[in-house]
Amino acid sequence: MDARERGNDKFRSGSFLEAARLYTLALASENPDRLTTCAILSNRAAALLQLGRWGEARDDARRVLAWTQRTAKRSTGW
Question: Residue 41's pLDDT is what?
Answer without folding.
Answer: 97
